[in-house]
Amino acid sequence: MTVHGRLCTARHRVAVLLLLAAFLAAAMPARAAPAPAAKRPMAAGAAASTITVGIKPLDPFVGRDDTGEYTGFSVDLWNDIARRNDWQTRYVSYPDLRTLLDRARDNEVDVAISGISITADRETQVDFSYPMFDAGLQILAADKPAGLDLSNQLGNLISPATGRYLAVLLVMLIFAGAITSAVTRVGSEHRWHRRMGEGMFRAAAVGLAGDLGEPQRLFAKIVTFAWLIAGLVFVSLFTASITTQLTVKSIRTGITGISDLPGKRVVTVRGSTAESYLRHHDISPRTVPSIDAAYPMLRTGDADAIVYDSPVLQHHVDVAHDRKETLAGQVFEPEDYGIAFPTGSALRKKVNASLLQMHADGTYDDLRARYFDSHS
Hints:
The chain is of the alpha/beta class. 49% of the residues lie in helices and 15% in strands. It contains 13 helices and twelve strands.
C-alpha cells in the first residue's frame, strides 16, 4: 500500500472514532446540575444581618407609641443589644405568649422577647438567654375594705355568736316577766300573759335602757338595781362581741395574700405561669387572653382579684392614678424573664455577652430605672 493510501485509511479511522464518540455522547442522559445550597437562617448570619424578633404586647415591656414605633423595656433592651452587634431588626407581633413561643420553637423567628418567664417546661421547647429581669407574682385587688358596705355588715351580724347572745337575752326577759307575773298575780285584774308582757317590757327598760322608774319598796329597789347591773354587763359583752365579729370579718373579707384567694373570683392570663401556680394551689381562676382584659373586670366588680406578674401589675398601679386598685401582699413565687431563641441558636451566646456588657457599663440599670424607677 502506498503512503497516500495509508494516510487515507488513518483519516478514515479517526473520522469513524469521532462519529462513534459523538453518538455515544448524544445517547447518554444529561447530568443533573447540582442543587443550590439551602439558605441559612438569619440568626446564623454575620454582622449587619436582619434579625426577626417576635414580640407580644405587654405594658411596660412591649408597647407602641403614638408614632407606631415599638417601645418598652424589652424593646429598648433588644435595640441596644442589636446596636452592639450591628444587627438590623424586623419586629413581628403575636397576640399571645403561647403563639410567640411556638414561632420561636419552630424557627420562624430568630428571637422572642416580651415578659417571658423562664420555666423548666419552656426550656424543653426553646433556649433562653441569661435572665434579663427578676420578677414574680403578685395580687391586684380593689382598694376598698369589703366589710364596710352595708350589705356585708348586715350579713356579718348573722352569726352563731349573735344568736346565742339574743337567746340568752330572751331567756332572761322571760324569766323576769315570769317573776313579775307571779308577784302581781294577787289582786291584779290582768291575765297572766298581760302581766308577763308588762314584766318583760319593764325588765328590758331597766336592764337595757337604764329606766329605773320609781320603785317604792326596798326589795324592789334592790332587785331593780341588781337587774340594772346585769343589764349593763350584758349590753357591754354583747356590744364587744358584735364589734369584734364585724372587725374580724371585715378584715377576712378583704384580700391580703394568697391565703385569702380560695373562694374569691380570681382572674389571670391564660397560659401564664400565674395560671399554673393558681391551679397547682387548688384555686380555679377565670382566664382571659391578655392582662388588659382583666383590669376592667376588677373595676366593674366582676372579679375580686387579679394574679399576674408583679412588674406588670406594679406599672399598672403607677399609671392608673384614678382607679381604686391596690397591690395586696408581697411578691410571691419569684421568677426571671429571659429572651427566647430557637434551640441551638447561634445568637444566644452573642446576646448573653451583650447583656453582661450592659450590666457592666450601667446601661441596664439606667434602662430599668427609666421604666421601673419607683420599684428599682
